[in-house]
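Action item from last week, closing it out:
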Amino acid sequence: MAKRYYFRGMYFYLILALQAYCVYHCYTNRNQYYWILAILFLPVVGSLVYLFMNVIQKQDIDRVQHDLTSVLNPTKKILDLEKRFKFAETFENQVALADAYLEAQQFEKAIFYYEASLKDVFKEDFYVLSKLQEAHYFSSEFDQAMVYANRIKDNLKFKKSKSAFLYALTLEKQGNIEESEKILETFDAPYARYQERLELAKFYIRNEKNNAARDLLYEMVTESETMSKTSYRQNRILITKVKELLASEF
């Protein structure tokens, strides 16, 4: 009897998670409103039809499976990668495990596995060093983040990378406002880099350059009005944040 109730409970949560994913996807991608009604009032059939009609394409199957797995069991990916690394302690498996810890915001474990992978021919691996910079930055260990940034900043891959962006933000944390601004402004390009440009606007506000912030925010809002439907879908959440910041009367 208890087992029967257990499976009923699992089935309920699986359907709930599936509905939540479909409603979220429908809302963020600005699909027709009637899909939400179908998902809510026909939980299984509506959700499955929505997935096949609006989400699943051949090139997207792996991504959808990953998203659903993350909703249902966020630790499964880490457990699977731990098993894979124990079976074969390769550089690739170790870095993949570190990536999973970083994605889960378990920065201490991510740092441990990234550092352990820096040996032999991989001692100066750009990707691992950039991830160590990222993990230390989001752990608020800015001095350590700078150590790793300095090891890769002369690499051609560094320019306009996420590492360069975090490097600029670290410079601001350390009081080097002028150099930070110079690097952040290299990410300001029309119809692109909305995450970085939003952060640049926030940088302007933090450093009492409100007019520059407003100009940049207005520019992004204006761009959003002439975007293609696909581009708008891809940047919808960021554009909403831009509008909210602009309306905040900072």
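Closing note: The chain is about 75% helix and 0% strand.
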